[in-house]
Amino acid sequence: MPGTTIPPFPDDVPTVPLLVIDYELIKARDKTEIDRLWDAATTLGFWYLKNHGADEAVAGMFEMGAETMALPLEEKMKFEQGNEGMSFGYKAAGANATDETGAPDCIEFINVAKDDALTYPTPRVRTYPSTVNARMERTITPFVRQSMEINDTLLEVFNERLGLPAGALAKLHPLEELSGCEARTIRNPKNQEMPQDKAAIGAHTDFGSLSFLHHQKLGGLQVLPPGAEQWKYVKPIPGHAICNAGDTLAIFSGGIIRSNLHRVVPPPKAQAAFERWSVVYFTRPGFSQLLRPLSDQSALIASAVAADEPGKYDKGATAGEWYTRRLKLQRLANRTGPETWRASRGTEYKPDYA
Ligand SMILES: O=C(O)CCC(=O)C(=O)O
Ligand SMILES: [Fe+2]
Fold first, then answer.
1. d(CA 316, CA 216)
2. Which domain of life is it from (predicted)?
3. Given the DSSP bridges, would you call strands 241-245 and 108-113 parallel, antiparallel or unpaired?
4. Cβ of 261: how many Cβ atoms within 10 Å?
């Protein structure tokens, strides 16, 4: 909002103290930094990442989002993701449930498939609004490439710490195979349109392996740490990305790497008067990859699985089936009752959840 000063993130709301990981040190395979990353990934599954070098592309992604959301709704709806379980394209506010009562979400976002960004101008999956096309080569493809490099490096580090043969996690995320990998810009309305007690995005775990998330100054992201009763805000820190592990990495690692519950609520206190934007890149496995712990390739994973509930991470689904189910069943158009929401859940779901 030009000419207005966004109030700082308040210092009297509960926050979660995430570790700050230095990407430059991770790239240099600094042992202490890798230990810290491992600690973050295996306890909460969330951490800040500094020195990632993607700031310019991220700034462009915020601009692309603003340009896209400024299009008439009718134009955006031509590119809506639909009810069949595909996430690429535009998602209108109110299309998804935020809980089992069917309360609608109030955010809109634009998702661009990695597989379209890398083959542009030839679409591999679908086409996008003119504002996306105009920024594909200048902003979106560079953002996708940089995010992929960062997430692939983190996966390589996790691969080694999990005691997997070199390239095992990389093989599940092949560059050429169609996947749910995507770049996203999200718009949350300001409080006149979004009451304080309303979730903008309901409590969820991310579907895929790694998420690389960026905010400006506004809080709103919250995590529920394991065993905690109270949701805690993640304080936005300029230039620091927020990274988190998702369900498919939790599954491949037999639960050693955590996919933690999180949600988006209105920004705290005076910040709620402002529109909030976020940018994310999601690394997800190739659609044909089977979701199961890699116990046969790592003694560490095998012993974690042996110590856990039998079959907990054997999902009997491919990454494509997992992604389609989760997406499709959170769409309100597909809702029949509370069971639809429950059936859309991920690794956090317990059969006794109802
Ligand atoms: O906007 C945010 O801070 C988080 C978004 C998120 O959790 C998601 O898109 O999966
Ligand atoms: Fe998320």
1. 39
2. Eukaryota
3. unpaired
4. 19
CB 107 within 8 A of CB 180: no
d(CA 258, CA 181): 19
Q: What is the full DSSP assignment across 254-271?
A: TTSS----EEE-PPSGGG
β-strands 20-22, 46-50: how paired?
parallel
Q: Which residues contact 142 (CB under 8 A, 6 or more apart)?
A: 57, 60
Ligand 1 mean position, distance from CA 173 (Å):
22
Complex ipTM tops 0.95: yes
Q: What's phi and psi for 264, nearest 5 deg?
A: -120, 125
Asked if residue 241 has its Cβ within 6 Å of ligand 1, the reply is no
Residues 6 or more apart whose CB falls under 8 angstroms from that of 114 comprise 144, 148, 179, 181, 182, 183
Q: Tell me the whole-structure pTM to 2 decimals.
A: 0.96
pLDDT tens-digit readout, 231-288: 999 999 999 999 999 999 999 999 999 999 999 999 999 999 999 999 999 999 999 9
As beta bridge partners, residue 241 has 49
Give 232's contacts (C-beta < 8 A, 6+ positions apart).
14, 15, 16, 222, 223, 224, 225
Taking the C-alpha atoms of residue 49 and residue 115, their distance in angstroms, rounded to an integer, is: 25
Q: Is 294 in the pocket of ligand 1 (CB under 6 A)?
A: no
Ligand 1 neighbourhood includes 206 CB (under 6 angstroms):
yes
Of residues 151, 267, 260, the one with CA closest to residue 216 = 267
Pocket-testing residue among 262, 263, 330, ligand 1, by greatest number of atoms within 8 A of Cβ: 262
Q: Is 201 in the pocket of ligand 1 (CB under 6 A)?
A: yes
196 phi and psi angles, rounded to 5 deg: -55, -30
